[in-house]
Design goal:
By secondary structure, this protein is an alpha+beta fold. It has six helices and 26 strands. Strand 15 and strand 16 form a beta hairpin.
Length: 450
């Protein structure tokens, strides 16, 4: 039977024989076992994850010594992925079994969101500056509930410093975003004064306030022969005339300036009417805007009208009202409502001062007449008798009446003196230099005639 084929079998019995035929065939090949040639593509799974054994290769071994590699047709035992650890997986194929091992681990945390842990140290910028992220930190929120703060590795977008305003900046990391805000301001230079009248030989110090407080100021005088200015802002009046003292401040490639108009007079003379200086405007602004900013700065410099200051400020108010009349139509259209209200208040103050002066001049004689009537009874009128049984207050009034009359007379005298002084002050303030010259020229011929 070592070979296949027909085989004759001889049977012997009692010295006699006979035969029959049998067939020897090749033995059938059967599966004797299976084994793992290569494990699945994924052998590590997260807790709770459904396992996938794709890529597994199993070798089948047959009884004739032959083998065959297969990638399908087998089944797997259940795998518990609810807990971490090593897990044995049983593979069954054609009644034969083999095993391989996988690992169940805790699921890796994923990024679920980000937030701003701390804004940058610098959140206020000025036109022309660049963004500085120093101090910016973000917090990463993970799927496992943990959090982590980082200071780098993220992208910041949305910053522009070409004009003033609020900016919203976006931080991006791992496909998640968060935002914060910064402010962009316009640099400026302000002067302690915008209009000053000096007598020849006098001096004062102009102070410049810079925003931001960095850099330096370059001082210039439009007419150094009238008034000079030093590097520290000291202005010295040299001769009669008008000059503009300019403080030039450069920041972010743009020049900003503020101007103080200085009028120099001879000693003892009244200041002449003054046009407005331009102040604190970028060189790129148009004429109307410059005019409005200069006028607004002038109004701000004189404050509001109060009962305490309206007399001493009367000359300033009159100058502002006249300056407002000189504004161009384009500039008038741009004047803020608050400034127009101030101008109206100045006009009202001037009108009220004029009315008060007129009323005091008219009332002064009447006040004296009333006092006289209080002291003298009208003819034919008898005094009203006083009952001694009364409270006594009327008797006290009668006794102190001479003292009250003396007080009224003194008050009347003081009012008349005050009215005269105010009238003289108004004449000096409102009189124009041309009027004085005209009066002088009119008197001259009379003297010649004599």
């Amino acid at each position: 039977t070592s070979k296949e084929g027909k085989k004759t079998v001889t049977v012997t019995l009692d010295g006699k024989q006979t035969t029959f035929t049998v067939t020897v065939k090749k033995a059938p090949v059967i599966l004797t076992g299976i084994s793992v040639v290569s494990g699945p593509a994924k052998t590590e799974f997260a807790v709770g994850e459904s396992p996938d054994f794709a890529g597994l290769v199993v070798r089948k071994t047959y009884s004739d010594g032959t083998t065959e590699n297969v990638t399908a047709g087998f089944t797997f035992s259940a795998v518990d992925t609810s807990k971490e650890g090593k897990k044995t997986v049983t593979v069954t194929l054609d009644g034969k079994q083999t095993t391989f091992t996988v690992t169940v681990k805790k699921a890796p945390a994923t990024l679920t969101g980000i937030s701003i842990a701390s804004a940058p140290a610098k959140t206020v910028y000025y036109i022309g500056e660049s963004f500085d992220p120093t101090g910016l930190k973000i917090t990463l929120a993970m799927s496992d509930g943990t959090k982590k703060t980082i200071e780098s590795g993220f992208e910041v977008s949305g910053f522009e410093a070409n004009q003033a305003g609020e900016r919203t900046l976006t931080v991006e990391y791992g496909g998640k975003t968060a935002s914060f805000r910064v402010t962009v301001k316009t640099p400026s230079v302000r002067l302690s004064e915008t209009l000053r009248t000096l007598e020849k030989g006098d001096s004062f110090v102009l102070r410049a306030v810079l925003t931001p407080e960095e850099g330096s100021v370059t001082w210039t005088s439009s007419d150094p022969a009238v008034a000079s200015v030093g590097t520290d802002g000291t202005v010295t009046a040299l001769k009669k005339g008008t000059t503009d003292i300019t403080a030039l401040f450069r920041f972010g490639g743009t020049a900003y300036r503020a101007v103080c108009r200085v009028n120099v007079t001879d000693a003892g003379t009244d200041p002449a009417e003054t046009d407005l200086p331009e102040t604190d405007v970028p060189e790129t602004e148009n004429a109307a805007e410059k005019e409005v900013k200069a006028f607004t700065a002038l109004v701000d410099g004189f404050g509001t009208v109060t009962e305490e200051n309206y007399l001493e400020k009367i000359g300033d108010y009159n100058g502002i009202v006249k300056a407002a009349e000189k504004l161009s139509p384009a500039a008038r259209a741009l004047i803020p409502a608050s400034v127009n209200e101030r101008i109206a208040a100045y006009k009202q103050a001037l009108d009220e001062i004029a009315e008060k002066i007129s009323g005091r001049v008219t009332d002064a004689p009447d006040t004296g007449a009333q006092d006289t009537e209080a002291e003298t009874q009208s003819p034919g009128t008898e005094p009203v008798p006083t009952d001694p049984a009364d409270t006594g207050s009327e008797g006290t009034d009668a006794e102190t009446k001479p003292e009250k009359d003396e007080d009224k007379s003194l008050k009347t005298l003081l009012i008349v003196i005050a009215v005269i002084l105010v009238l003289l002050l108004l004449v000096l303030l409102f009189a124009k230099p041309g009027d004085k010259k005209e009066k002088t020229s009119k008197k001259a011929p009379k003297k010649k005639g004599k």
